[in-house]
Specification:
Its EC number is 3.1.26.3. It contains 12 helices and 3 strands, in the order αααααααααααβββα. With 240 residues, it is mainly α. It has 2 domains: 144 residues, Ribonuclease iii, N-terminal Endonuclease Domain, Chain A (Orthogonal Bundle), CATH 1.10.1520; 80 residues, Double Stranded RNA Binding Domain, CATH 3.30.160. The termini are far apart.
């Protein structure tokens, strides 16, 4: 017998997202990772096809938003900013904001090895969920969902300028604003020796500001620094 997402979890998720599905089968499919589907008999539809569609939906929403918000920017900067807002790190953060990791159906092995926190899984999960919203409620519903999650365009543009050197930018900002340097800590390291996965956090004044993962300390720290910069910009925007 194929398992499904519990009714309580479905309801909590829809309330958090401020969207209630007319077709709950779409929601269940969006939350079904291939590793889970492979363990079921018969195998239910997984979220890979929805992920494919969701990527295009997100690209269109971002293109429309940036085109309208930045009338003086040329194609190159617009393309780079769209890529920043749609990359794996960004889409994984959107999934976490919605709490999708709590509802995803994972295979036992994937779940036991930290799949609920893996960026690649979370990024794909958000795209699949966005596609489900689009199919169920149309582009307006999908756009409304995205606009609740996206940082302000002006802040995203500022963050893009620091993309080439996020650690240096964060250190300068931290020393100027908080009078201290950021501190990086390795939270975990798993995977085979030839392909490790490091998870690193960055803290300022003993407050965690971001996390990142990667195949090296350096790449994980860069990602953590980018997340910290984004968080600071979002907090600045909320205070304006």
């Amino acid at each position: 017998m194929t398992l499904t997402v519990s009714t309580d979890i479905q309801e909590q998720l829809q309330t958090r997202c401020d969207y209630h599905f007319k077709d709950l089968n779409l929601l269940t499919q969006a939350l079904t990772h291939p590793s889970f589907a492979a363990e079921q008999t018969p195998s239910p539809p997984d979220n890979q096809r929805l992920e494919f569609l969701g990527d295009s939906v997100l690209q269109l929403i971002l293109s429309d938003l940036l085109f309208a918000s930045l009338p003086d920017d040329k194609e190159g900067p617009l393309t780079r900013l769209r890529a920043t807002l749609a990359n794996e790190s960004a889409t994984a953060s959107y999934a976490k904001k919605l709490g999708l990791q709590e509802a995803i159906l994972l295979g036992k092995g994937e779940d036991q090895t930290g799949g609920r926190e893996r960026q690649s899984i979370l990024g794909d999960l958000f795209e699949a969920f966005l596609a489900a919203v689009y199919l169920d409620g149309g582009m307006d519903a999908a756009r409304t969902l995205c606009l609740r999650l996206l940082p302000p365009v002006a802040d995203s543009k500022r963050l893009l300028l620091a993309k080439d050197n996020p650690k240096g930018t964060l250190q300068e900002l931290s020393q100027d604003r908080f009078k201290c340097k950021p501190k990086y800590s390795v939270l975990s390291c798993d995977g085979p020796v030839h392909d490790p996965n490091f998870v690193v956090s960055v803290s300022i004044n003993n407050v965690e500001m971001g996390q990142g993962s990667g195949s090296s300390h350096r790449s994980a720290e860069r990602q953590a620094a980018s997340q910290a910069l984004l968080k600071i910009l979002q907090e600045d925007s909320a205070q304006d």
